[in-house]
Specification:
Layout lengths: L12 E5 L6 H15 L5 E5 L10 H9 L14 H6 L2 E4 L2 H10 L7 E3 H10 L7 H11 L22 H23 L5
Parallel strand pairs: 1-2, 1-3, 3-4
Helix pairs in contact: 1-7, 2-7
Length: 193
């Protein structure tokens, strides 16, 4: 099952993506769920990665997340695929390479695939015209240049803390907490009718 509640999963459907789906994306998945609920927004949030199914969450990330009230101990990684991408209203990635790979898997959904930081920067730089979430994502993607998703290590990426020092985990958690607050605020302004 791709989404909580399967085909009946409510919209918007947000898919968070990172490399292995054991550290950043499961944390983002849980954060968005909590923060959207704080706005009274009913949404479906899932996460996926590119390596393997069935891996537990990174234990250091799970410990840090738990101190902030987010439980990751029950997480099990899942592989991303084209149908999952196509069924999402928004795909947010932690790195440019994740976005590129997702677009290759589901080219018709390219306008819905963004790095989390890049999406929020685009919204803050030039807010899209009022409209549905889909319309706004199309407008944001139309302004994206070919080079926006090229290369690695850009300012629109959230570096992977996996197997690094606890300082890197704290930095990632702080960054993702702030970014998901901004994203939940924006999503709450685009409730489906």
């Amino acid at each position: 099952m791709s989404w909580p509640h399967g085909d009946e999963a409510p919209h918007p459907r947000v898919l968070a993506v990172c490399t292995a789906n054991i550290c950043r994306s499961p944390f983002v998945e849980r954060l968005i769920g909590v923060k959207a609920a704080n706005y009274g927004l009913v949404t479906s949030v899932a996460s996926a990665g590119f390596l393997t199914n069935g891996r537990a969450a990174d234990s250091v990330m799970a410990d840090f997340a738990r101190t902030g009230g987010i439980e990751l101990r029950d997480h099990s990684s899942r592989l991303i695929d084209g149908p999952l991408i196509d069924s999402a209203d928004l795909v947010i990635t932690m790195e440019r390479r994740h976005a590129r790979e997702a677009i290759v898997m589901a080219p018709d959904s390219a306008y819905r695939v963004h790095t989390l930081k890049g999406l929020l920067a685009a919204i803050n730089r030039t807010p899209p015209a009022p409209g549905s979430l889909d319309d706004q994502l199309r407008e944001i993607a139309e302004k994206r240049t070919f080079s926006d998703l090229m290369g690695d290590g850009g300012p629109d990426e959230v570096p992977d803390p996996h197997k690094r020092s606890k300082k890197h985990y704290r930095t990632a958690i702080t960054t993702l907490d702030q970014l998901t607050t901004e994203l939940a605020t924006w999503l709450s302004q685009h409730r489906p009718v």
